[in-house]
């Protein structure tokens, strides 16, 4: 009999996930109902018997821990908007999307949302139960669409914004691919030099009694560590990576990284323009949908990735409540927002065309980000060449200096 990986929900809200051998999906649903659970998502695996089935079950379980990509959310949003526009009932549309979604974790979430919608709960409330998949901004936009009766339009707007974010991320990754390959090859070549070339040169220096400068001694020590204690180096690298991940999950660690990003050449310009574009685009959509400016800024403060941008918007929402304009609240953050952003916001507030101004600003800075990401690899290449040249020069100088010293003593 086939093995099914399933997700089920009890009347009290308890979620149950696992695998079960059954004749078919109906038989599985009947067994779960006998245990007080309703089947919400199911995936048929391989037939039972042997290690292959066990491996398949393990893979299915591990897939539940995968994250949900931006592309998966984009396809969900776009397809849901199309189905709603075609007149399909929301719960039916969600069931269709659940079937066609390949991400196992997302499939379970969509199934749970579909079940709750079927039970009569608002769509936005069902989404709010899964903050890892649908952040505050997404939930609030859906709530606005439900209230105003224009859910299809709101979903299309969010899908357009997600598409822009996806394109920018893809361009940045593409621009960094070449430097990353060069850097990886450099590390491999450097490692081979340290374990193959340096030991032989060190033995030669020891035989001829050459006086070694500090840089050469450092290289020989590193070579011995890599050759004889490579496992300690590997443990150290793994510990460093995990330590950095743990630190970056803390508030202080995140603030430190965000502060560094806002100080690095080239990167700081990209960060300012990218966050300004997202701020203007999203705020324009929220305001145009009828969200009060204070509430819109509060929502935005929870969605921008950089801590300092988020903090500035939260503080701005507090100051606007006290009677200040948005321009007055943001004009002092000169290290975050380009002058054009604050000045145009002032014009929009004075003329009553804030939404139109924000849309134009978003278009402008998205074009700026596109141009910057296109030239990113060209900007990084000279830096990489300098780093590689410095590394090769240090290695060559460290190995050649003792030879000159010996020759001078002859």
Describe this structure in words.
The protein is mainly alpha-helical. Among the domains are: 2-63, no CATH class; 70-161, Type II secretion system (T2SS), domain F (Receptor-associated Protein, Up-down Bundle), CATH 1.20.81.30; 267-374, Type II secretion system (T2SS), domain F (Receptor-associated Protein, Up-down Bundle). Helices cover 75% and strands 7% of the residues. The chain has helices spanning 25-34, 51-63, 70-85, 90-100, 104-118, 123-128, 136-148, 151-208, 214-228, 230-249, 251-261, 267-288, 293-301, 307-321, 326-330, 339-351, 354-374, 376-409, and strands at residues 2-10, 15-21, 37-47. A hairpin with a 4-residue loop joins β1 and β2 (15-21). It is flat. The chain starts with a strand and ends with a helix. The model is unreliable at 46-65 (pLDDT under 50). One of its GO terms (cellular component) is plasma membrane.
List the helices and strands and how they pair.
Blueprint: E1 2-10, E2 15-21, H1 25-34, E3 37-47, H2 51-63, H3 70-85, H4 90-100, H5 104-118, H6 123-128, H7 136-148, H8 151-208, H9 214-228, H10 230-249, H11 251-261, H12 267-288, H13 293-301, H14 307-321, H15 326-330, H16 339-351, H17 354-374, H18 376-409
Helix pairs in contact: 3-4, 3-8, 4-5, 7-8, 8-9, 8-17, 8-18, 9-10, 9-18, 12-13, 12-17, 13-14, 16-17
């Amino acid at each position: 009999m086939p093995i099914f990986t399933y997700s089920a929900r009890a009347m009290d809200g308890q979620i149950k996930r696992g695998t079960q051998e059954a004749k078919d999906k109906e038989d599985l649903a009947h067994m779960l109902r006998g245990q007080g659970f309703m089947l919400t998502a199911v995936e048929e695996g391989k037939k039972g018997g042997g290690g292959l089935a066990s491996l398949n079950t393990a893979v299915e379980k591990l897939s539940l821990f995968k994250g949900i990509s931006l592309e998966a959310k984009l396809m969900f949003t776009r397809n849901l908007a199309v189905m709603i526009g075609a007149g399909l009932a929301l719960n039916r549309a969600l069931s269709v999307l659940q079937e066609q979604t390949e991400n196992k974790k997302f499939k379970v979430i969509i199934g749970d949302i579909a079940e709750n919608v079927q039970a009569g709960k608002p769509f936005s409330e069902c989404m709010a139960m899964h903050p890892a998949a649908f952040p505050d901004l997404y939930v609030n936009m859906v709530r606005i669409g439900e209230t105003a009766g224009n859910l299809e339009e709101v979903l299309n707007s969010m899908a357009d914004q997600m598409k822009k974010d996806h394109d920018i991320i893809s361009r940045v990754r593409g621009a960094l691919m070449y430097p990353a390959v060069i850097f990886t090859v450099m590390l491999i070549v450097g490692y081979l030099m340290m374990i193959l070339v340096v030991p032989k040169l060190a033995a030669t220096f020891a035989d001829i009694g050459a006086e070694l400068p500090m840089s050469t001694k450092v290289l020989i020590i590193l070579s011995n560590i890599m050759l004889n204690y490579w496992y300690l180096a590997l443990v150290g690298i793994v510990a460093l990576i995990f330590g950095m991940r743990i630190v970056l999950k803390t508030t202080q660690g995140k603030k430190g990284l965000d502060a560094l990003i806002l100080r690095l050449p080239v990167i700081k310009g990209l960060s300012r323009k990218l966050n300004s574009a997202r701020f203007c685009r999203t705020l324009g959509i929220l305001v145009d949908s009828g969200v009060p400016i204070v509430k819109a800024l509060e929502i935005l403060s929870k969605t921008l990735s950089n801590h300092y941008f988020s903090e500035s918007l939260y503080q701005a929402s507090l100051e606007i409540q006290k009677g200040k304009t948005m321009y007055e609240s943001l004009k002092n953050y000169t290290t975050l927002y380009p002058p054009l952003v604050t000045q145009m916001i002032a014009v929009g507030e004075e003329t009553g065309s804030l939404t139109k101004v924000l849309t134009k600003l978003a278009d402008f800075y998205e074009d700026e980000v596109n141009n910057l990401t296109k030239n990113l690899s060209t900007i990084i290449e000279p830096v990489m060449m300098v780093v590689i040249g410095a590394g090769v020069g240090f290695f060559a100088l460290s190995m050649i200096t003792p030879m000159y010293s010996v020759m001078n003593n002859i």
